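Blackboard transcription, Thursday session:
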Amino acid sequence: MSAQTMDWSDIPYVLAVCETGSLSGAARYLDVNHSTVFRRIEGVESRLGVTLFERLSHGYVMTAAGEHFYQQGIELKEGVTRIQRELGGQDLRLEGALTVTTTDSLLHRLTPVFLEFQQLYPDVELRLLTDIRRFDLGQMDAEVAIRPTRNPPEHWIGRNLLPIAYAAYAHSNYLQGMAPEEYRWILIDDILNRSPMNRITAEHKAMSAPVIITSSVMGMFDLVRAGMGVAVLPCYMGENTPELARLHEPEPKYNVDLWMLAHPDIRRSARVHAFFEFATARIRDAGPDFSSWKQA
Amino acid sequence: MSAQTMDWSDIPYVLAVCETGSLSGAARYLDVNHSTVFRRIEGVESRLGVTLFERLSHGYVMTAAGEHFYQQGIELKEGVTRIQRELGGQDLRLEGALTVTTTDSLLHRLTPVFLEFQQLYPDVELRLLTDIRRFDLGQMDAEVAIRPTRNPPEHWIGRNLLPIAYAAYAHSNYLQGMAPEEYRWILIDDILNRSPMNRITAEHKAMSAPVIITSSVMGMFDLVRAGMGVAVLPCYMGENTPELARLHEPEPKYNVDLWMLAHPDIRRSARVHAFFEFATARIRDAGPDFSSWKQA
DNA sequence: GAGGACCTTTGCATGAGTGCACAGACTATG
DNA sequence: CATAGTCTGTGCACTCATGCAAAGGTCCTC
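(Written on the board underneath:)
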């Protein structure tokens, strides 16, 4: 590299000092040592033969040349970020297995996401596990988890996607000519004890109401749609289903956040990273209750 | 730097391969080793999770992603070049006064440096002060000082350029047919008391030797060249002057280091900085006694 | 078919870049 | 006035990027 040629890798250092006003601030921003920033700035100024910053006791202040550099450099930064965003993770040669664990109802509702991802990366072998038992990411059973939770595990990469609401639903035909005390309630087995679904059910179900017990939310959904009774379901299931009627307004206090989780070691994988970013964007774009997606 | 973040310094490598079509071509273009280009491309593709080039037997061909990178990257390159031209090129638009204080003999010997600098920066108004009184940089009388000293001031930016040797010289004609005790000694007035020149003179001059006293080293030099006597001179003056003969080997214990000094506040000035770096390189390249430069 | 010119890829040694630890300065607060 | 928190700046040791040397492949020319 010529003595008079600026090193491209100097640019982020200069921009960081411009934005933070100090070597220390830039070092924190860039996650490097402040002495590295110091030497980089010295090197840039030496090679350009121009002073970019006035050294004051409380930090570095841009000179006119520094201001100029910043204005130009900010555009460069946007350009680099654009390249990264548009190319990063787009490896169309992505292949190998990608294991996602989720609930059966989320699997059902998120089929548009999985479909689009599979079309984009046909060589990736999707493994979509819907075992309702809480799995242990540490055991490497899955690489990504998409689950509602109020207590996401620490030290894991987690994205809070959106809140999930819950309410009671029934077939509109079922509700006609029937008093609430006569409703048959479709319940899930006790594994999700104290869950919002169970708590809302307890609030609305008559004490002696007849019940049907099933082992999955999708089972509940099928039974509700068949007109066999009333069930508390996630609104992303109950809404956008024309034949179902909601019995009451969902209460925000019962909301649970939907999280996407990945173990830090696993996120380095290009396909995991690609999926993580891809699914995050798609789910957040889908709106409340995934209203953009037609209920199957 | 995050594993998934592209390194800015990778960009020129990718662009060079795009433009030349091979690792070897890019290496020549960038003046680096082809193995370096190889590793950089591998690193970028790994971090972005995307393939930028198809590897063919005759070189590297851009993939669609590579084309995309190139289109974006080309604009970045233009941006970087613009910064360099608009800031780095400020050297060539350097203007204003630049005040250098030095000795008269150094001014004499360093004319090649000043000449080249003036040609390079025609808009800079050089002020070359050779007042032999020690000036006070703090008073901002000068921006740069080039002077021999054993005690460079602290807190100032100082470059130790090279050691200066001293010895006695006379015209070769003057020395013929004359005993040392008969030598007329050319002395400088007492301002530089205990200086190496004075100390060497005291060591070689006969106690009752006749003297001529002048007020500058250049005056001494002119008188010596005229054959009027013997004088202790800096070797950078005495050497490379064909008509002068040195009377004895210079003793290293009398050497004094030549320093270039600038006040820290002033070094931020682009033209001071430019001169500082430029002159340092030229003086150090000139060799002992500035032997690369012909004595005027 | 051999040789030359071009290319890519890899192991090893070296030096540049970086982080660490330290020192010093300035400012605000008790 | 002492202390804490922030900052800049530097010497030293270590890590990693780079160049060097080597190996291997393909294509073209004689």
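Lecturer's comment: Residues 22-25, 34-35, 38, 55-60 of chain A lie near DNA strand D (CB under 10 Å from a C1').
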